[in-house]
Design brief:
The structure is a single chain. The protein is built from two helices and 15 strands. It is an alpha+beta fold. Strands 1, 2, 3 and 7 form a four-stranded antiparallel β-sheet that branches. Strand 2 and strand 3 (about 50-60) form a beta hairpin. The chain starts with a helix and ends with a helix.
Length: about 260
């Protein structure tokens, strides 16, 4: 009797896991994106002229590829009067479903020191073509150089069957609470990577005397995008599903 109860519990658990995995599968194509709430703004008094920067991330929450992701920022003073506006595009040309791309909007204005608040809006288009996986970041390190700027060095590998041209590596830097504090990018050396070959990169964050140990890297070329890490939640579901399935078969064998 006890074994039968266990079998029933395991069966319900397997059904629950299967349902949760199925629930994340899209029912139909959708074109959607959003600006994540972890953006931030800062005044750069070291630049000439002084500039105000807004950095953050865009997430593709739809089921189709996107491009031309344009962020527009409007800046206001403490009286909520408009000081100015500026726009820029995401640092990735093509954004696949479920992925994020950083952005940086910069305002050059004589009144940037009066900025107290800003609003953000997003425009984008659907990208109807496929962009296959073909790039992998093998390693990276970060440090402060002698001039006081944070740098990230690393290596990218082309795991695709054809050349990857104009390979760009993009870094997003975070504070301890997950807020975006800086973004930067550079092209690899060499910028074209042959199949199964590697190239190095060096990214410099233009925020002097600041160090953000938490960062993520992504990359793309004209032809390919980066291979994503396996989501831990999905992997956990798979492992639990396999373990429960094995246990279910063992209990059924014992009851026969």
């Amino acid at each position: 009797m006890k074994s039968k109860h266990i079998l029933i519990i395991i069966s319900f658990a397997l059904a629950s896991i299967f349902t949760s995995v199925q629930a994340v599968q899209p029912a139909k194509a959708s074109v959607q994106a959003r600006i994540l709430p972890n953006h931030s703004g800062y005044l750069d008094i070291t630049s000439i002229p002084i500039t105000y920067h807004v950095v953050g991330e865009i997430e593709n929450i739809g089921t189709t590829n996107l491009h031309w992701l344009k962020v527009t920022a409007k800046f206001y003073d403490d009286n909520n009067s408009l000081i100015g506006s500026s726009s820029s595009y995401a640092l990735l040309d093509v954004l696949l479903p479920g992925r994020k791309a950083p952005f940086e909007v910069v305002l050059k204005d004589s009144n940037v020191n009066r900025i107290k608040n800003y609003t953000l809006s997003l425009e984008f288009d659907e990208y109807i073509y496929e962009k296959p996986l073909g790039l992998e970041i093998l390693k990276s390190t970060t440090y402060i150089d002698e001039a006081g700027f944070q740098k990230v060095n690393g290596t990218v590998k082309n795991i695709a069957p054809k050349n990857a041209t104009a390979v760009k590596v993009v870094a997003t830097f975070y504070d301890g609470e997950g807020k975006v504090c800086g973004v930067a990018y550079s092209y690899t050396t060499p910028s074209t990577i042959r199949p199964n070959q590697t190239a190095i990169f060096e990214i410099e964050l233009k925020r002097k005397s600041l160090f953000f140990p938490n960062y993520i890297l992504t990359a793309e070329s004209y032809e390919y995008t980066i291979v994503p890490e396996l989501p831990s939640l999905n992997l956990c579901h798979v492992l639990i599903f396999l373990s429960l399935t094995i246990l279910l078969f063992k209990l059924k064998a014992q009851n026969q």
